[in-house]
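User: Reviewer 2 asked us to show a designed sequence for the structure in our supplementary figure. I'm pasting the structure tokens here. Could you produce the per-position amino acids so we can include them in the response letter?
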């Protein structure tokens, strides 16, 4: 399904905002103004924005950990001020400032992050089952190439396919998992080949093209809501920087070549999307300048909100409130 101009403009706007927020997070961790880690999303924000911008309000969204799910948060419209307050241990954080990057926004059905890669493969079957019972609701579960070596990934795909659950397995394949390359870890070039083993429709899309990702996910969502079951969407993307800020950027114990990284930069999703919206007369240069100006102002507002929020000092009872074991 081809996107309309309004949809393209919204995607472009969200991509620029997500890119600004990712840069804000990078700046803040470098300045010691974030708790915990940051896994930069530089050059890779199109996948999350494209995957989440046109989900329904009732759909369950489980973002990827890269850029701490920023593209998905922007697409879903979660409050980035509360997201940043969470990352700075403030009371106005989405989890009361207790989780750092293990955030969630349960009231918006954004089911967060965990320290365990692939933790979500069992829950996603339950979310999919519940969504099927309720109807008009599906699940988008995002993860990376690095998670598909988990045994639970296969159980989840098997159950999802057998029970025709309304799930999109959305894989951001950036070719890397910390210092390991996807080529070293997977015998086939496309992670989505694994889904084909379960008879699941599997689509490979250019993860640098925010419009192509959105079109693919819209189609997969339609398929899911029609009761036809899951789809595996593999967005081919890239990792420009180190895995997380402070960890050396190595592949097989060697620094990645400057020439290789330069080639990756040519695929910057914002540059690609800007060219497209201008060529297709979706936006004028003046409107683009306005979008950039608004994104800058939004970043300033979000930072002010998080900085003004008091430091969280939860009591023992409050700390225990979210513990289930
Ligand atoms: C079960 C488990 N094993 C290992 C790790 C360490 N770890 C953290 S991120 C990561 C790589 C994830 O790679 P991928 O899923 O491709 O996402 P990317 O970081 O490339 O976006 C690993 C191995 C972990 N957190 N949990
Ligand atoms: Mg990866």
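Assistant: Here is a per-position design you can include in the supplement:
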């Amino acid at each position: 399904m081809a996107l309309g101009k309004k949809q393209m403009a919204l995607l472009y706007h969200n991509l620029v905002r997500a890119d600004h927020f990712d840069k804000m997070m990078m700046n803040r961790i470098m300045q010691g103004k974030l708790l915990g880690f940051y896994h930069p999303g530089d050059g890779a924000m199109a996948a999350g924005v494209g995957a989440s911008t046109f989900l329904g309000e009732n759909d369950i969204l489980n973002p990827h950990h890269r850029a701490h799910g920023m593209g998905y948060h922007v697409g879903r419209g979660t409050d980035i001020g509360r997201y940043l307050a969470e990352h700075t241990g403030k009371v106005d954080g989405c989890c009361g400032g207790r989780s750092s990057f293990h955030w969630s926004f349960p009231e918006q059905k954004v089911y967060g992050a965990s320290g365990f890669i692939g933790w979500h493969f069992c829950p996603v079957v339950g979310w999919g089952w519940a969504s099927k019972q309720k109807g008009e609701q599906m699940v988008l579960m995002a993860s990376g190439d690095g998670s598909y070596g988990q045994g639970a990934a296969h159980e989840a795909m098997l159950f999802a396919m057998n029970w025709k659950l309304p799930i999109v397995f959305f894989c951001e394949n950036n070719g890397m998992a910390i210092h390991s390359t996807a080529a070293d870890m997977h015998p086939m070039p496309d992670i989505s080949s694994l889904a084909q083993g379960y008879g699941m429709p599997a689509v490979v899309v250019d993860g640098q093209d925010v419009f192509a990702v959105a079109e693919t996910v819209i189609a997969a969502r339609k398929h899911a809501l029609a009761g036809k079951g899951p789809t595996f969407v593999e967005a081919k993307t890239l990792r420009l920087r180190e895995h997380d800020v402070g960890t050396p950027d190595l592949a097989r114990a060697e620094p990645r070549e400057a020439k290789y990284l330069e080639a990756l930069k040519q695929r910057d999703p914002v540059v690609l999307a800007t060219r497209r919206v201008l060529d297709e007369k979706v936006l004028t240069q003046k409107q683009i300048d306005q979008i950039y100006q608004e994104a800058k102002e939004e970043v300033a507002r979000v930072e002010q909100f998080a900085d003004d929020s008091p430091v969280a000092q939860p009591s023992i009872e409050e700390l225990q409130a979210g513990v289930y074991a």
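For the response letter, you might also mention the following. The two ends are 46 Å apart (CA to CA). The longest strand covers residues 167-173.
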